[in-house]
Amino acid sequence: MEALAIGSAPPRPGFAAPTRYSHLRRPRTLAVAASARRLLAAAHMDAAAAAGGRPSPAPARCTRAETEPEVGEVATSSHAALEAEAAGATEQGDNGSPVADAAAAAGASIEGVDGIRIRRRPVTGPSVHYVGPFQFRLENEGNTPRNILEKIVWDKDAEVSQMKERRPLYMLKGALEAAPPARDFVGALKASYDRTGLPALIAEVKKASPSRGVLREDFDPVQIAQAYEKNGAACLSVLTDEKYFQGSFNNLEAIRNAGVQCPLLCKEFIVDAWQLYYARSKGADAVLLIAAVLPDLDIKYMLKICKILGMSALVEVHDEREMDRVLGIDGVQLIGINNRNLETFEVDISNTKKLLEGERGQMIAQKDIIVVGESGLFTPDHISFVQNAGVKAVLVGESLIKQEDPGKAISGLFGKDISNTGAA
Ligand SMILES: O=C(O)c1ccccc1NCC(=O)[C@H](O)[C@H](O)COP(=O)(O)O
């Protein structure tokens, strides 16, 4: 199949230059993606109708046809396997296929079937409707989010649709090629753990959060990032969501461009594969994939794309069911256990211990997966507690960012200096 040139040299007929980003083609994508979208829309409407809901127009999401990694890339064969799996999944009523996705969107068997506790988008469409020049609001159970995570994800879905319209995937190719190379996030965590004997620190650059409001008024992301690095952070987590966390991709880019060496996690609510490419184009070395938001097949697919882009993925779970789902997925290197319930905001650090007990802990050790303890860590005792439970890294925001000197707060959190110069 011929690909249209996006770069400078015209490709030989039938061949596209096999670069890292050569799968981002404009070509037939327009035709194929459009027909894929039509199919998706049709499946969406059918499944919604079958589920007894009103069909809502399928939002323009990054379909597999649009992001299909093809030429000479890691995913060439595995992608085919994924597609086959998707087809099988449709028949089995599993998750991740367009039909199952649509069923989930329609609110059909959200709990129990695919393990996702949230609805990916409003069942009955947005609550604001337009008829002619008039706008009216119609709220019902189907278009009212049930918790903050659902609200964030619905808003993100709409936001990403708009971003994609402004910068379709093929337009990101130049930015991807110009982006600084991805660095080894997992390697940095391992090196820090080996050096200090303590959980490696992923320090979070976060101005605000839905549960805590504004955490720091005088927020200079670059200064904070540099202070974290100087005081022993192995990696940084940078919030990019604007609406709920007052973060931005500008912050991520600025930290990267300022020469900070710590690999950067793009802390975002990923609902669409397009966001992976965008994060990479802004300098991310890793992304967050939340199991409560993404069906297994989406996680598998996104892991493949991360691999192609050279990024790591931190796959986040909150309960046993999500942990079991993620342990069933090949290629997961990093699992984050969030001690914060993102639906209720309740924080309980014993969650980390609970999820690492027994067979789960054994399987994690066998698979050589690094576990990251996330949220609610404030004292050296907390760090010891999660380390004894089995984590090799921790993700910490509030307890550092709220201190007058967030960098210095690191030694307070660990009970000792963990910087390169200080750690034994
Ligand atoms: O923190 C929130 O209010 C929140 C709400 C909805 C989704 C995600 C949310 N937080 C993300 C995180 O879990 C934390 O930023 C991260 O784990 C660090 O936690 P902490 O050290 O407690 O700031």
Automatic annotation (TrEMBL):
Any single GO molecular-function term of the entry would be:
indole-3-glycerol-phosphate synthase activity
Indole-3-glycerol phosphate synthase domain segment(s)? 149-411
The keyword Signal appears for this protein: no
Record-linked InterPro entries: Aldolase_TIM, Indole-3-glycerol_P_synth, Indole-3-glycerol_P_synth_dom, Indole-3-GlycerolPSynthase_CS, RibuloseP-bd_barrel
Output the CDD domains linked to this UniProt entry: IGPS
**What Enzyme Commission number(s) apply to this enzyme?**
4.1.1.48
Q: Which domain of life is it from?
A: Eukaryota
What are the UniProt keywords, alphabetically?
A: Amino-acid biosynthesis, Aromatic amino acid biosynthesis, Decarboxylase, Lyase, Tryptophan biosynthesis
Q: What is this protein called?
A: indole-3-glycerol-phosphate synthase
